[in-house]
Amino acid sequence: MSLHFLVKTAFKDLNEDHFKILEILVENLEKFEVIPIEFITEHSNFDKSSVEKLLRKLNLYKLVWAPKGKTRGYVLNYNGLDFLALKKLVDKNILEGLGKPIGVGKEADVYEGFTPSGEECAIKFFRIGRTSFRSYGKRRSTLTSIHSYLHASIEAARFEFQALKILYPRGVAVPEPIAREKHIVVTKIFRGIEIPSAQYINNPEKVLKEIILNIWKAYEANVVHSDLSVYNILITPTEDILIIDWPQWVERSHPMAFTYLKRDLKNLLRYFSKKWKIRELSEECREIIEKILKEILNIDEYHNFLKGVFQ
Rounded CA gap, 21 and 54, in Å? Predict the structure, then answer.
């Protein structure tokens, strides 16, 4: 069942009582794998018969499901989480419409959206736990203690929105944050493609310098991306850049921050060296990288680092 179909049909058919049941399920994601009907009844202030009727309607729209062979109870799924989060964003007068998908990734889907004033925005739905991304817990140290994929998605959105709120006012090239609700992050609309999808870049040296400058700005703001690559850097037709995907960011004081930072820089420099034949950095780029790495590398290590990148 598509997200657009849910929005067009279920919004008209469900009432506040249904949303109350969904909220109970969200609030208890960490406590239960399957939430017993008795628990839902107790926390809803409805009688059991009413709760069962509400759950049947939610199940009809595939917002929840009842696993076979389990204690009588229900599990929230991504449809239900999407639906509840969108409803709250509409109630808060942040969103009015859902547009076409503009990006599908391993851990998130991005849709066009529309505000009540008619402005375009980007709506990012985190989707932790897809089949192709089961190793998320191994690769995202900030989220390894979270057992529920839905709850991990909520936490990922919280981390990302926190990073954007820190970085955007500091002039870092990130999407402008508008709001977060559950696992959804809403930002101003942005246009661009992943750098590897660009068939031609007129001035790759300028683009690389801009990326490095933004890594430095983020670093000065106490933020290290920790999983930066050309696949989460967008480039526009005018060759401006935008750095996206911040749910795994760490502070400079994190014990692995410098390791992540050095790895991010090495991956970027190697890509531009191989793809765009950049064999020598400008003096300005070298100065910025030296500022970033001087806390962990002595001068010889720094030169060896650059040599390892461009060899």
Answer: 8
86, part of any domain: no
- What pLDDT, in 10s, does the model give residues 15-64? 999 999 999 999 999 888 889 999 999 999 999 999 999 999 999 999 99
Q: Domain of residue 24: give its range.
A: 3-81
Instruction: Supply 308's token pair.
Output: 């390892």
- The pLDDT, as a whole number, for residue 1 is 63
221: tokens are 């703001």
User: Count of domains in the chain?
Assistant: 3
Contact yes or no for 160/166 (Cβ under 8 A): no
| Residue in 227, 240, 245, 264 annotated catalytic | 227
Task: State whether 132 and 26 are in the same domain.
Answer: no
Q: Is residue 198 part of a domain?
A: yes
Length of the chain: 311
Q: How far is CA 123 from CA 100, 180, 186, in A?
A: 10, 9, 5
47 is catalytic: no
Chain-centroid distance of CA 274 in Å reads 29
